[in-house]
Design goal:
Layout lengths: L1 H54 L3 H13 L7 H23 L3 H22 L4 H13 L1
Helix pairs in contact: 3-4
Length: 144
């Protein structure tokens, strides 16, 4: 019986050494997985572009496809929308503290988040979308 307890204690000591190592290496593995997935996704995207360009005869359509891939993902950030989401997140935090936890800390955090969302909404109305994006959208619609 004593031998089994000793082996269990020894196993727990060894496990105690590996837990911090795993905790430090886990974010590294997560970042590595994200980069590998992004690289594979990009490769598949360009392989699909090559296959589509083989079947398309119109060079203008191919150049439009290439231009869309080169531009990348435009950040279509509507500050009014993100501000509204942030505002209601703050309201939810404040309500959670007021009606659920009653610690007083989350209410202040909720107010802070609410005012950040309010500021984003005001900025969305003061600074509308970029005119270049509007012009590109109108031109693409006129081509059709």
């Amino acid at each position: 019986m004593f031998a089994i307890q000793y082996q269990v204690a020894q196993f727990i000591d060894v496990l105690g050494v590996f837990i911090p190592i795993i905790a430090i290496l886990l974010p590294v593995f997560i970042v590595l997985i994200v980069f590998v997935y992004a690289a594979k996704s990009k490769k598949y995207k360009y392989d699909a572009l090559i296959e589509v360009s083989k079947n398309v005869k119109d060079t203008e359509e191919i150049s439009d496809l290439l231009r869309s891939f080169k531009e990348g993902k435009k950040s279509n950030k509507d500050l009014r929308r993100t501000g509204l989401v942030t505002l209601f997140t703050g309201i939810g935090l404040a309500a959670l503290d007021k009606f659920g936890l009653e610690t007083g800390v989350l209410f202040g955090v909720g107010l802070l988040v609410m005012f950040i969302g309010l500021g984003q909404m005001i900025a969305g109305y003061i600074y509308p979308n970029q005119p270049d994006e509007i012009t590109d959208t109108v031109e693409s619609y006129e081509k059709k």
